[in-house]
Amino acid sequence: MRINQTKDLLERVGWTFVQAYIGLGAIDWLSNGLNATFINQVYAALGAALAATIKVLLAQRVGSRGSGDAIPGGVEEGT
């Protein structure tokens, strides 16, 4: 199977950003005192996306399939 590493990276990093941003918004709403501004939430989500980018790029280089999954042997089951 051939992996499009650019699409793999963008999908994984994009979802990490969205998930971090939603999580930060939920924490801000639930805490009623954190008072994280919009830009602070974006910065924190960008930090999570940066960490995801580093992880995916490393996994693409180290793994045997070229995908961004970091689980040894990949996530595909045998056919």
Word description of this protein:
- The protein is mostly helical and 79 residues long.
- The chain has one domain (5-62).
- 66% of the residues lie in helices and 0% in strands.
- It has two helices and no strands.
- It has helices at 5-31, 38-62.
- Helix 1 (5-31) packs antiparallel against helix 2.
- The mean pLDDT is 81.
Structural topology:
Blueprint: H1 5-31, H2 38-62
Helix pairs in contact: 1-2
Structural class: mainly alpha
Q: How much of the residues is beta strand, in percent?
A: under 5%
Mean pLDDT: 81
Q: Order of helices and strands, N to C?
A: HH
* Ends distance: 12 Å
Cα gyration radius (Å): 16 Å
Described by strand count, sense and barrel closure, the largest sheet is: none
- Count the domains: 1
* Global geometry: elongated
Main attributes?
mainly alpha; 2 helices; elongated
In short:
By secondary structure, the chain is an all-alpha fold. It has two helices and no strands.
